[in-house]
Amino acid sequence: MSETDQALDSDSRTPTDVYEAIEREIGTVLVGNEAAIELLTVAVFTRGHLLVEGVPGVAKTTLANLFARAAGLEYRRVQMTPDVMPADITGTHVYRENTGEFELQKGPVFTNLVVADEINRATPKTQSALLEAMAERRVSIEGETLALPEPFMVIATQNPIEMEGVFELPEAQRDRFQFKLTIDLPDRDEEIELLDRFDDDPELGPDSVDRVVDPETLVSAREFVSNVYVARPVKEYVLDLVGETRDHPDTVHGASPRASLTFMNGAKALAAIRGREYVLPDDVKALAPSVLAHRLVLSTEADLAAVDRTDVVADVVDAVTVPDASDVRAASR
């Protein structure tokens, strides 16, 4: 029996085991994406969705495909363009002449992991077609409500440098994404390693990745996450961070209570991945840019001054006192 088969047969894999297996397998193709893989794993453990931003060519879609294959998730990709209609996402009823009846044709949203590539190129109406699926994990097609598979996750990508022919995501849509992940260009050492790998194997890609876990393992790992303890000082720290976004001079709307819940659940998953049964303030702090930046609505003055939302988040984190880790550990016993 291969190492992969043994991994799939295991019934007691911890979140740490799951993350390390996925990260190790994806690492056979990509270089330097550990933080992104960790955030993807946190999202799948907490029923979250990701908005992934990066310039063309940094493997946004490839990373999602590799993650799906390593995690044993059914994967579908939709190239979002202005002519994509809501029914192209959710599905519709199609008339079959041979039977004289209408037959339900499910759209690509009926999968474990759907990638909405360049989501900001779709019209607002089509973008909104994802809202019910992301929020309720079900869709309505001509009056019929259908449940989506479990696990279910949306990863939407967007290109930050092209502004023509795009439709900016409205606040309600952005808030549905648990995290925003920014993928930067690799450094020189990482890029030379990437060149070496593809020089040795030009066919290297998603097909090179083996399944190292399965959907059932991901769902069972959620039980570990749900049992992670969050001490009162950590919850207060979360509320202080979220409250500070509402009072910052550059924002007209700060983060919502959904952001507070995302902080708590995400920090529990991050703690579990890192082998702990309790959350530390550093778990919350590490998630702040991914949880907060895309949720902030800047003032007109801040927009005109080209204020970066990540700079606002940095101000927020600096302004809030971090609870003492030793006190949190004592409270978590």
Automatic annotation (TrEMBL):
<dbReference type="InterPro" id="IPR011703">
    <property type="entry name" value="ATPase_AAA-3"/>
</dbReference>
<feature type="domain" description="AAA+ ATPase">
    <location>
        <begin position="46"/>
        <end position="187"/>
    </location>
</feature>
<keyword id="KW-0067">ATP-binding</keyword>
<keyword id="KW-0547">Nucleotide-binding</keyword>
<dbReference type="InterPro" id="IPR003593">
    <property type="entry name" value="AAA+_ATPase"/>
</dbReference>
<dbReference type="Pfam" id="PF17863">
    <property type="entry name" value="AAA_lid_2"/>
</dbReference>
<dbReference type="Pfam" id="PF07726">
    <property type="entry name" value="AAA_3"/>
</dbReference>
<dbReference type="InterPro" id="IPR041628">
    <property type="entry name" value="ChlI/MoxR_AAA_lid"/>
</dbReference>
<dbReference type="GO" id="GO:0005524">
    <property type="term" value="F:ATP binding"/>
</dbReference>
<protein>
    <submittedName>
        <fullName>MoxR family ATPase</fullName>
    </submittedName>
</protein>
<dbReference type="InterPro" id="IPR027417">
    <property type="entry name" value="P-loop_NTPase"/>
</dbReference>
<dbReference type="GO" id="GO:0016887">
    <property type="term" value="F:ATP hydrolysis activity"/>
</dbReference>
<dbReference type="InterPro" id="IPR050764">
    <property type="entry name" value="CbbQ/NirQ/NorQ/GpvN"/>
</dbReference>
